[in-house]
Design brief:
This protein is mostly helical and 495 residues long. Helix content is 65%, strand content 0%.
């Protein structure tokens, strides 16, 4: 064994020992966390106001999980040079916020799922950080070629789940802060939060497919409604067999169960009708039916009944707008299937009306999540009417909708290719743009410069019955679900 090989192994051993030391220290700090919550606070401690450290905890974790982690995920997908430093700063911010939440004064809480889930998130952050450090070090040892793909896979999966995990923990945190969803209220809390989150997630999926999934759907000859119908079918089956928890049937049990039957029956019909890339209005009609049913869903409080009605009307509008989009705006064609000529490398056209269904779904989800029994009783005790409550929910929906579009446009602007016709490869596109403030125009600039550099054959007009099938292009490195190594300094462009 030569001296250089021995030195490399020695340095590798030192680095690995340092990593395990960090793991041990952080794990030890975790063991002692939340110790003051385990003994059970007194009624006086639970009635105290929220102190400054707890507010810092809320602000830090909201910033980390609501803003920074989603942004770092997008920057990681496009291999931006800010991904690593921003990830490190976000992890540090979250860990400091975790300490504030574990050792605060003022109001104390019983141990809840929010505290348990925070422990799981702590370990996930630890694993994510260790994986990122390992990938960035580019260690040279005999098992590197076998270990690195696994480490890269774990790092990528955890990163893609953080927006969902952050959303879930935020919901748990709000319920913990207000002492909601305890005892007999847990079931209806779960129903509202899961269903409301599902509508919001549906909006995210629609926006992703609308803006950067057009080419992906086109290549697989799959309609958006085909995917929607499968989700509705599966969810309907689950809902049918979980709404009734035993005992005598009530009117509400029957309504909720029948709604599940409508979903799986309609979902099955939608799967059949929308196969082979055909458009369908069945998922939109199921959304419309769900909104109609919820608009007449009587509640114990008048305020709750009015908010549920507003949720139902908003969901009905989302379904109607989706029908209009498919039937009259797109004329049964997928997004980008135009009757006029579209050249390779251009952005697929998105009409203004197409933004309405995703936004209304976000608003519907926000309204439904805010309509639990305890939330409505709290709002009623403060003298809040349904108009004020609805304006608050719509304001939150606009903020969420804005942030969704910013993240998706960031991905597109820094190299996401699926919003472009022809799916131009990264080797044909400029990569000198580095400013976050200019990503909105980057994609169009890339397409225009590509058209100037690459001669294109004259394209023929096409009709709705004969959709254009672009020629296969080399796979770009900037894809939504890319498995290449973003930590490889020789792999992909640097932004």
């Amino acid at each position: 064994m030569d001296a250089s090989s021995g030195a490399e192994r020695f340095s590798t051993s030192i680095i690995m020992r340092q990593l395990w030391t960090v793991i041990g220290v952080l794990g030890a700090s975790l063991v002692s966390a939340h110790g003051n919550h385990a003994h059970g606070p007194t009624a006086k401690q639970m009635a105290e106001p929220v102190d400054f450290r707890l507010w810092l905890h809320i602000a830090m974790e909201a910033t980390a999980w609501g803003i920074l982690f989603p942004l770092t995920m997008v920057l990681g997908l496009v291999r931006h040079r800010l991904h690593v430093p921003l990830s490190a700063a976000t992890v540090a911010l979250s860990l400091v916020g975790f300490l504030f939440g574990s050792h605060h004064g003022g109001r104390q809480f019983m141990h809840t799922v929010h505290g348990t889930f925070s422990t799981l998130l702590f370990f996930s952050l630890l694993v994510q950080a260790v994986c990122g450090i390992y990938l960035k070090l580019h260690l040279q040892w005999s098992g590197e070629h076998r270990v690195r793909p696994w480490v890269l896979g774990v790092h990528g999966i955890l990163g893609r789940t953080y927006p969902v995990l952050g959303w879930t923990q935020a919901v748990f945190g709000i319920a913990t802060l207000q002492r909601w969803c305890n005892g007999g209220h847990l079931g209806q809390c779960l129903a509202h939060y899961i269903m409301g989150s599902a509508f919001t997630a549906y909006s995210v999926i629609l926006l992703i497919m609308l803006k950067c999934g057009v080419e992906w759907l086109r290549r697989r000859n799959v309609a958006q409604e085909y995917l929607d119908s499968w989700v509705i079918l599966i969810w309907g089956i689950i809902n049918t067999f979980t709404e009734h928890q035993g005992g005598p049937w009530t009117h509400k049990d029957l309504q909720h169960t029948l709604m599940g039957v409508v979903w799986w029956a309609g979902g099955a019909a939608g799967v059949w009708v929308s196969r082979k890339g055909k458009r369908s209005v069945i998922p939109a009609f199921i959304i419309l039916l769900t909104g109609w049913a919820m608009s007449g869903h009587a509640q114990a409080l008048m305020l709750s009944t009015q908010v549920h009605s507003l949720f139902g009307y908003t969901l009905m509008c989302a379904g109607i707008c989706r029908v209009i989009e498919v039937c009259f705006v797109l004329n049964d064609r997928p997004t980008g299937e135009e009757t006029d000529d579209i050249e390779e490398g251009q952005w697929f056209k998105i009409r203004v009306f197409q933004y309405l269904p995703p936004f209304l779904l976000v608003a519907s989800g926000t309204l439904f999540m805010s309509a639990t029994d305890e939330e409505m009783r709290w709002a009623n005790s403060k003298g809040v009417d349904h108009v004020t409550w609805g304006l608050i929910d719509f304001s939150i929906a606009f903020v969420l909708f804005l942030w969704m579009n910013v993240l998706i446009d960031t991905y597109i602007g820094y190299g996401g290719r699926y919003g472009l016709t022809g799916a131009q490869s990264s080797e044909e596109t400029p990569t000198t743009q580095t400013s976050l403030g200019s990503y909105f125009s980057l994609g169009r600039q890339m397409a225009q410069e590509t058209m100037q550099l690459t001669p294109q054959p004259p394209s023929q007009p096409r009709s709705a019955s004969t959709p254009r099938r672009p020629e296969p292009q080399p796979e770009t490195q900037h894809v939504l679900f890319d498995e290449d190594d973003p930590f490889d300094d020789d792999n992909g462009p640097k932004h």
